Structures are given as structure tokens and as C-alpha cells.
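Dear colleague,

As promised, here are the two records you asked about, laid out in our usual form so they can be pasted straight into your sheet.

NAME FIELD: protein one
SEQUENCE, THEN STRUCTURE:
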Amino acid sequence: MRFVIVTGMSGAGKSLVTKYLEDIGFFCVDNLPPSLILKFAEISAQSEGKMEKIALVIDIRGGELLHDLFPALDEIQQSGFSYEILFLEADDDVLVKRYKESRRQHPLSQEGRLLKGIKEERKALEKIKAKANYIIDTSTLATRQLKQEINNIFLEGKTFTGIIINIVSFGFKYGIPTDCDLVFDVRFIPNPYYIAPMKLKTGKDEMVKEFVLNAPETKEFLGKLDDMLDFLIPNYIKEGKSQLDIGIGCTGGRHRSVAIADEVFRRLEEKKHRVVIEHRDIEKDSRGVGK
């Protein structure tokens, strides 16, 4: 029997995750009091295979009952049941935005400011997060990407390294993405914009891609970047970082940065990392001006 505790920050996507788990055969129960976990596990074990995959959503809505979670987990472990904890995380500003858009009230902010409630919840969940087997930061994940993460872990059994790598190509003329941990300027690479047949194309077109990736400067850059990321990623994982945002920029975000971001994405995927990619500015200024 696979027994999963789904928890984490309010607004981080637990409802969506519950639906995705149900889609792949999990029996899900929302907001179960921790004191009933052992009884529920026993009932599931006696279901003659009808409840082989269980997911319990337990979070701050339980109030003081949340303090009973650790004793309850110890109890089910002593009774011979194993469990996994999935923790959903998101940045404070993202959670604030989601709550304002949904017009819902945060469980801990009924009589105070929303951000204060979020910070109180984050503190209350510190110990649970520290015990989590899987931590997914949903701050920049689209719903399809979150669904794929759940499938990777609970359906396909892929290795969970603890970090999601987000790659974004962008144009410096439109500003540097503010959430990037690492930013690489590839404007030193020969620019396809100045070659007429490629001017109006993008870095996803084969002609542009070959031109950019075959440049000696690109080959040397990618080799050095490979070495850097091979060193950094394991150390970020060791430090507990759950998300790494990498920005790759050229002048307009249409040619060089797109081709190189796609190549970095391909290389990281080959190394079995969990990677998400976005081409932020590829459709901007589509006439190719200043690319």
C-alpha cells in the first residue's frame, strides 16, 4: 500500500494535486484529523486491494489538530505502515497574488493581513517540510507542469532530486527576469538578425538554431556552462534549494537566447534533471527589429 501525506502552504496547489492523484488511482481524503490516520490506514489495509494507493491532505486548516500529526505518523510507522510526505511550496508574493485573484481568505488571516497569515503558516509548517520526501515549488509551474511532476513521482517512478530547474530565454531590451538565480548574457554570440534569411525567424527554426549552436563561441560557452551546472546543481540540492531559475538573454529574446536555452534544456533533460522552459520574449516585436 502506498500512503502519501499531502501538505504544504495554503494556495500552493493542494487541491489540484489531489485531482491529479485521483486521476492516477489514489483514494484521496481531504482534511482528515491526524488522530484518525492510523484507523484509516488499518481500514485501507483490510480493503482487499481496493485502496492500494492513499493520499491524505492535512494542512493548517486543522488548526491545533495539526500538532497531532507527528505523533500520528510515529504511530502508523510503529504499526508497520510506511508513508511519504509531499510538501507544496510557493513564494509569498505568488501566494498573495493567488489569494487576491481567487478572493478567498487565508486560514490564518481572518483578522489580520494576508501576508502575516502566510508567514505564520510557513513557520508552523517548518518541521513538516523538513520531513518531506518531496518538495514541489509551484511558484512558476503551469498546471500541466505540476500534473507532470505528480505523474513523474507517483506514476512513472522517476527519481526525485528535490529541485526543479526553470530556464527562461529573454531579451535584455525588455528587462532581466527578476526571479532568476543565474543570468547569462549571450549577446557576444554572432547575431542571426543581421543575416537576411534569418532576420524574421526565431531560435526554434533549424536555420537559426544551426547558425547559433555551430558558432565556436557557442560551443565553448555551452561546454563551460555544462561544467558549471554539473558543479552547482548537486550543491544546490545538498543545500536544500528546491528551485533553480536560469535566465539566458540576448538583445531581443528571439534568436540566440532561444536557441541556446533550448540546447541547455535538452542537455539537462538528458542528465535526468526536472526542467521547465519558457521563451518569454520570443513573440515580442515580431518584425525582428533590434534582435
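NAME FIELD: protein two
SEQUENCE, THEN STRUCTURE:
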Amino acid sequence: MKAIVQDEYGPPHTLRLGEVPIPAPGAGDVLIRVRAAGVDYGVWHLMTGLPLIGRLGFGLRRPRNRVPGMDVAGVVESVGVKVTAFRPGDEVYGAGTGTYAQFALARPGKLARKPANLSFVEAAAVPVSGVTALQAVGQVTEGEKALIIGAGGGVGSFATQLAAAGGAHVTAVCSTAKADLARSLGAKAVIDYTREPLTGTYDLIVDIAGLRPMAQLRGLLAERGRLVLVGGEGGGRWFGGLSRMLTVRLRAPFTRQRLDAPISLTRTADLDALRDLIESGAVRPAVGRTYLLAEAAAAVGDLAAGNAPGKLVITVD
């Protein structure tokens, strides 16, 4: 089958189109014929091997999994003997392994039935970013003030909608090029970080892959407000943004402000919740750009450069 292959850590050009065997599903696996796959920062981390501590999990010298990709939307090709939740022909979405390929494996607990009102391309934009946003925003109440930093990206576009759907007054922080998108997703106000400082007081701040000082963020937070850090970008080569997330967890017990840096895991229950919101019209994926499978390197490069609004998606024949 055709697949994107990576044999060493490095920049996007280390990703190449190649031929690999179709993976064989184990007893508890689902084999998916991939129709589309989302682009997220997890792929960038696996591609670059950064931060270096991450190589303890995904390979010291080279990627343990040669085929990258997590987000997936497609059709079930076959299932292992222990799988009862899905059967061949089901249209599904979720998180798999090596999804930048014509076929990929996934565990049933990370899949759900695709929203009926979405195309495969739109559905592939949802799983990792949508679940991350769902867990970050959590429960909001009518009239709360929410600040979404990085509102124009994959996670931010979902976080903006989820907070607005919960009744919050959303202020989006993004670049000039992404301001219109943020407004279309429900933001009542937009701060262009290239031109304006962050101001105001908020009940919820979701900082997506940001590098702003903790003191600045807490200064914008209400006395009993909630600050959620998402993503581990930036920082040094060894620990990257993980050190910042660890700092939040260590400080959390000693303040009235609620500080959190959750580790998001894609689960069927969250995918089902997102499907309900999508089918009701409360949330929609914001697909910024699509790429052919052979253009995966360009897609990951555009993600890292922040060149496109919304979520980037790779289509697979």
C-alpha cells in the first residue's frame, strides 16, 4: 500500500511517499481503509524527535513507527476476532496508528461512528483536536468570560466553539489572518496578538501551545478562574513545553485559581459527545486546507509555520 514513511528524525523533507505492507489486525484491532487523516502537532513531535525526552517513548535513534499519523476517518475493512463494536463497512473516525497511509490500525476504544453530516475530510479534522479542546474547555456556564489563546488553529477552533456553545462570552486571540475565522466560530471579541496586548479578566483561559509567562496569564485570570495549558510546543530541546506544563501542576495545589495541563487521550465517549454536538449544528470542523497523501511533508511544514487557519487534512485515495 502507499504510505508516508520516515526513517530518521528531522524536518518535513524526511517524510516521503513509499510502499509498505498492509498492517495485519490483531485480535483487538480494527483495520481501516483511510479516506482522510488530520495533521496535528503530535506528528510534528514524532517527525522531529523533539523534545528529546519523548524519544524514550517513540524511538531513541529513529521513529519506532515508520508511518506517522493519528487522526483518521475512513471505512472499516476488517476487525479482529475480539472486536464487537464495529464491522466491515462501518464509517468511522478517531485515532489510529500510522494513518498517513491507505490502511491503518486502530483500537475500538479510540474510534466512533462518523458524524452523519460530515464528509470524511471534515471528520478527519475532529478527533485529536476536538477531543483535546473538549477536555480543555470542560464545563462552562452562561455568561462566563473565556479567553482562547491560539483560537485560529485546530484545537483553538474547536475550543472557541465549545466555549461559545456553553454560553461563555469568548475572546479569541489569534493573528490578523485568522480573525475572521474566529468570529465565524462564535468569538464575540478578537485580540490580534500581532498588534494588541492581552487585557481583561477571564473565568477561563485556554492557552494552546503558548509561551506566555505564567505570571501574565494568571494576572488575566479571575480569583477562582481556570487556566488550562494545551500542547507542549516551544521550550528547550530536552523537555520542550513539558517543563511549563509540569510547573502548572506543581503550583496548582497552592492557589485558589484552578491550574491544569491535561494529557488528552482520544476515547470513544468523547468522540460520541463531539458527534452529537456536530450533528446538532453546535460545532463544526474548520478545515483550513487539504493535501494529497504525497504532500504530507508540506502539510506538516505548514502546520509548524502556522500558515493556514483551522485544521489541515490529508486526503487518501
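A couple of things worth noting about protein two: The CA atoms of residues 49 and 60 lie 9 Å apart. The radius of gyration is 19 Å.

Best,
R.
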